[in-house]
Amino acid sequence: MTPAPTGSAPAPTAPTARTGIDWVAVVAALVTVAAFVRAIWFTPPDLLQGYAQKIMYVHVPTIWVAFLALGLSALAGAFWLFLKDPRLDRFAESSAEVGVVFTTGVLITGPIWAKPIWGAWWVWDARLTLTLVLWFLFLGYLVLRGAIDDRELRARYSAVVGLLGALLIPFVHLSVYIFRTQHPMPVVANPEGIQMPAVMQVTFFFSLFAFTLMYVAFVRARMALATDRDALEDASTAER
C-alpha cells in the first residue's frame, strides 16, 4: 500500500495487540470467588428453605446484572440516535451481549432453586415467563446486529429494538405485585424493609458487588473486541 499523499487524512490503522494484565478482571474474579466462599461456608442456611436458599446469592445478583446490562444497552442506543457516537453503539452491543449471558444465568439458576422448593424445574409463572420473553427479545437483538452489514443502519435498528426490549424490564420486576405468582415477594427490595438477617444481608450485598464488578470486566473486554473489529473493518475499507 502506497503512503497517503501529503495533506490527506491518514488511513486507519489495524489494532495493535494488547499486553499486560487486566486488573479489573483479576479483581472481579477474586471478589467473586470470595463471595462464593462466604456464601457457602460462612453464611448460615435459611430456616425454611435450608441449603437450597444459598443459590439466592447467585440468582438474585445475576438478575440485577442482567437488568443493569440490558437497561444500559438500551440507554446507550437511545443516546446514539442523537449523538451518532460509535462508542455508544459499541457499548450498547457489548452490554447487551453480556446481559444475555447473565439472563441465561437467571434462567438456569432459577429452575435449580425452584426444584427443591416448588417441586418443579419450571412453572409458567408470570416472572419466569416474562424473563424468558426478555431473553428472547435481546437474543433477537444480537441476531439483528449480526444480520446487518451497514454500521449506521445496524446501530439505528438495534437502538430501537433495545429500547423496546428494555420496556419489559420494569414489568419483570413488578410482576410479583401485578400478578398472582409463585414467586415470593422480594426480600431485599421490599416496601417493609429487607427481610433477611444481618449476616445474610452482608453476603448478599457482597455478592451483588462481585457480580456488578464482573459485569464491568466483561463489558470492558467486549468493548475492546468491538473496537478492534471496527478498526480492522476501517483499515480493510481504506485499502480497497
Q: Brief description of this entry?
A:
With about 240 residues, the chain is mainly alpha-helical. About 70% of the residues lie in helices and about 0% in strands.
User: Major β-sheet, in short?
Assistant: none
Which structural class is indicated by helix and strand composition? mainly alpha
Q: What's the total helix number?
A: 7
Note the beta-strand portion. Answer: under 5%
* Overall pLDDT: 88
- Could you list the spans in which at least 5 consecutive residues all have pLDDT below 50? 1-12
* Spatial separation of the terminal alpha carbons: 10 Å
Secondary-structure element string: HHHHHHH
Strand tally: 0
Overall shape: globular
Nearest-angstrom radius of gyration?
A: 21 Å
Query: Approximately how much helix is present in the residues?
Result: over 70%
Topology:
Layout lengths: L22 H19 L14 H28 L2 H33 L7 H22 L3 H16 L1 H11 L19 H42 L1
Helix pairs in contact: 1-7, 2-3, 2-5, 2-7, 3-4, 3-5, 3-7, 4-5, 4-6
What does this 3D model show about the protein?
The N terminus is likely disordered. Helix 2 runs antiparallel to helix 3. The protein is globular, with a radius of gyration of 21 Å. The protein is an all-alpha fold and 240 residues long. Helices cover 71% and strands 0% of the residues. The longest helix is centred in the last third of the chain and has 42 residues. The protein has a domain of 158 residues.
